[in-house]
Amino acid sequence: MTDGLVRHSLSAAELAIIGSGVLPGPLIASLKRVIASRNIAILEVIRRLSGPASPTGRMIGALWQELERRADRGLAVLVSPQVGAWAEDTLRAEGRGDPEVLVAALSRRASGGFRLDTGEPLRSHFGFDIAETMTSARWAALCREALQLLAARHGRTAMSVTELITTIVPVNSPAPAFSGTSGAAFGAVALSPPIGSAQLAAAFSHELQHHILAATQEIVALTEPDHPARFAVPWRDDPRNAAATLQGVYAHAAICEFHRTEWRDGPTADTNANVAAYALWRQATAQVLTMLLDSGALTPAGRALAEAVGGRIFPLLAEAVPGWARERAEMELASRVLSSSSVRYRG
Predict the structure, then answer these.
(1) C-alpha dist (Å) from residue 329 to 131, 199, 263, 279, 317
(2) Which of 38, 58, 120, 156 has the most crowded Cβ, counting Cβ within 10 A?
(3) How large is the C-alpha radius of gyration of the chain?
(4) Long-range CB contacts (< 8 A, 24+ apart) of 293-298?
(5) Tell me, what's the pLDDT at 54?
(6) What is the mean pLDDT of residues 258-267?
C-alpha cells in the first residue's frame, strides 16, 4: 500500500484558487488524495510501532490487502474520518490502539450522503458528550433541507460539501450553537443540534473551509514555524497562533459570503438576521486578515492564499448595509462581546 504514496504539490495558481473559495472538482479530488496519503503513512508507522504480528499490525495488514482487492473502495476508506481519527489517536498512544474500534467503525460506514456517527473513535476524538436530544430522522431531514438551501443559492459550496463532508457527530457543547472539525478526522463535523436548516447550512459552509485548508496545510506550509505572533480574534476567547488565525479567517470569509447571499436572495423573514451577521463577519474577517498580512507570520504560499481571501473580503467593506447593522457590528467588535444571536464556531 505504501508503494502508492506520492509527493503532492500546489502551484501558485492553485493556491490562489483555494484562496478564492471556489474549488473545481479536480482540485477537490487532489485534496482528498492528500489526506489518503497522510493516513496511509500514519497507519504504516503504527503497524511498525506495534509490530506486524500484533493485533493492530495484523488488522492494518488485512486492511491493505482488502483495499488492494477492492481498489474502488480505497480512497473513500482512506479519507474517512474514522480512519483518520483512529490513526492519530493511536499514534499519540505510541501504537497502543484498539484495532477492533476501527474495524467496527468501518463496518458502520455508509456510501453516499451524511452519516450520523455516535460511536468510537469519533465519540472520544472530539472530546464532547454525544447529544441525544434529536432523532436520526430529524438530523436527516435537517441535512436534506440544508443541502437544498445550499444547492439553491450557494451551488459551489453545495458541491464541495457533498464531496468532502461525510459524517456528523452530534455533541453537547457549552455554546448554544456549536460546530467544529478536527484536522485528523477529515470529513467529520461535530455539531450541537441546530435550530434549523439555515443554521446547519451556515455551519456546513464554515466547516467545509477548515477541511479544505487542513488538506492544503498537509502539502505546503502557510505560516512560518514557531512564529511568536499571537492574535486576538473576535470568534475565540483565547489568543491564536498564525496557523489557527489563518484557518479562522478562511472559514469566516465563507460565513461572510453565506450571509451576504442570504441577505440579498434569501427569505425576507431572515433579512435582518442575515444582514447583521454579514456586517459583523465582513468587518471581523477584514480586521483579522489585515493583522495577519502585516505580521510577517505567513510564508510566501500563505501570503498568496491570504491575499486571495482579501480579494474577496476587502471590497465588501464598501457595500452599503443598514446603519443599525453597521453600528451593531462596530459595537460588538469594539467590545469583543458577540451577541447571543451570533453563532460561534470553533476556529
Answers:
(1) 32, 19, 15, 6, 12
(2) 38
(3) 20
(4) 295/227, 295/229, 295/231, 295/242, 296/224, 296/227, 296/229, 297/223, 297/224, 297/227, 297/229, 297/242, 298/222, 298/223, 298/224, 298/242, 298/246
(5) 93
(6) 97
pLDDT digits (tens, 9 = 90+) for 4-18: 556 788 999 999 999
Average pLDDT, the chain: 91
* 8 Å CB contact between 215 and 34: yes
Where helices occur in 266-346 by DSSP H, the ranges are 271-294, 300-313, 323-335
* Distance in Å from the first CA to the final CA of the chain: 34
Domain boundaries of the chain, sorted by first residue: 221-347
Closest of 192, 171, 174 to residue 125, by C-alpha: 171
pLDDT of residue 225: 92
Percent of the chain with pLDDT over 70: 94
Among residues 50, 142, 133, which one has the least CA distance to residue 98? 50
* Alpha-helix runs per DSSP H in 119-270: 122-125, 136-153, 155-164, 197-219, 242-265
Q: Are 114 and 146 in contact (CB under 8 A)?
A: no
Give the contacts of 228 (CB within 8 A, at least 6 positions apart): none
Q: At what angle do helices 99-108 and 55-69 cross, to 10 degrees?
A: 30
